[in-house]
Amino acid sequence: MCLQQPAVFCNMVFDWPVLYWNAKYLSEVLDGRTIRFRMGMKKRDAAPQFETKCSYVEATLEEFLAWTSGQPTCVSRPFSCYDSSKYWAYADYKYIARLFEDKTEIFKDIMWSDFGFPGRNGKESTLWIGSAGANTPCHLDSYGCNLVLQIQGRKRWHLFPPSNTTFLYPTRIPYEESSIFSKVNVVNPDLKHYPRFTKAQAHVVTLNPGQVLFVPRHWWHYVESVDPITVSINSWIELDADHKARVEEAITRTLVCAIKSAENPSPVDAWLNPTEVEATSHEINLQYLNGAMSAYLEYQKVTVSEDRDLSTHDTEKEASSCKRRKIQVNPKPEDYKSGTHEAGITVVKAKKLEKIPFGVHLIPVLPQSQEASSVGAGAAESDSRDRLSKNEEGHFGKSCCTGKQSVMSNDCKTLAAQTDSDSTANSSQMAISTNDLLDCLVNPQVVSLVAGLLLERERV
């Protein structure tokens, strides 16, 4: 948890049973169960292809495989309206605990405990299956950090540090709890509208089967499938910093829902992401905000108490012994803290850990501008190819993740038909739209300041 930059683990999961979870195997396990696929255009556009701009298909994995291999439409019927040379399909955010709720024994195929998180397995993981070109728009996750295992095919990750937030033009429209989107299509940027993006520092890596990518807290990322079929699994790791992040997310939800719900409905553009079940009422949002604040303040009390006990204990240890303290090798789950947390074990460990052991088994994802970044990515790819050469097809033979939902109700579809006020006849002459206003009101820096003020009021 001392890592403050993305890194690829190359030799951690060689004995995990989940490595056999290619699309064909999953098709057999699911045995005809339909899942939801997001359909998008392969054609590059200057604007990000948000989920609100996509269409959706309910299909089996068997039908998906038939479609990607170009079989007749009678075999891949749900995809019959989509030319596989022009469209991609993505079964994203599929919570394994729900997908395999009748096959719970499969959870143990995933062993995040090897990374120091005892008891963590497939129950706290999410499955992603896509075709070539399938992508997730550039965004950052408000909660936790992220571990991503590539199982089949390759995915290319474009990552940007938290310090680049201003250059990525953050927006909360479309709205989704825990996701802050970028207005920029980072692989085809419109520099006329978003000139500050030229200052952004991309860290790019192609993740190969058998490799695990660590994405630190609040790192922006755009992810795209490179090969005809890709399968990956991730787990969002909770952090102490999430307590305040929940307060900030509650503030954002309250403001976005209040302002967008008051706006004249328009079918032109959706503001609620399909992963959100509904636009909650103002009363419910305030209850959520008060609950998040109470939980944070209670956590602060416990933390202060623990810090005092730890400080007293350390003072007594120093007085009784001059022996050098050792770094805790097998910490308890609760000992894993955010790298920026001001109190507790992480800071002590960070000071003691002189150097992260980067090498052939742990490769840092460096900025694209640095020549070493291509060397690092190449090393990751070549190292993986050496170990996976026996598999010719390129693959092996948020729960409390982030609050994302995989199904959108009919009522939500109606609510999601609301958009910018400048799209209506009455506001066509206005220079500032509702979304422009929201981009300022719920800017991450502004929301953080508001959260601090609200929490200070409660402390007083």
Notes on the protein architecture:
The strands form 2 sheets. A 9-stranded antiparallel β-sheet has the order 3-2-4-5-14-7-12-1-15. The chain is built from 10 helices and 15 strands. Helix 4 packs antiparallel against helix 5. With 460 residues, the chain is of the alpha+beta class.
Which descriptors would you attach to this protein?
460 residues, alpha+beta, 9-stranded antiparallel sheet, 10 helices, 15 strands, JmjC_dom, HSPB1-associated_protein_1, Cupin_8, HSPB1 associated protein 1
Layout of secondary structure:
Elements (H helix, E strand, L loop, with lengths): L6 E3 L13 H8 L4 E7 L13 E5 L1 H8 L18 E9 H4 L26 E6 L3 E7 L3 E8 L2 E6 L9 E2 L7 E4 L20 E5 L4 E4 L4 E6 L3 E9 L4 H21 L19 H39 L24 H8 L9 E3 L6 H18 L21 H6 L18 H8 L2 H16 L1
Antiparallel strand pairs: 1-12, 1-15, 2-3, 2-4, 4-5, 5-14, 6-10, 6-13, 7-12, 7-14, 8-11, 8-13, 9-10
Helix pairs in contact: 4-5, 4-10
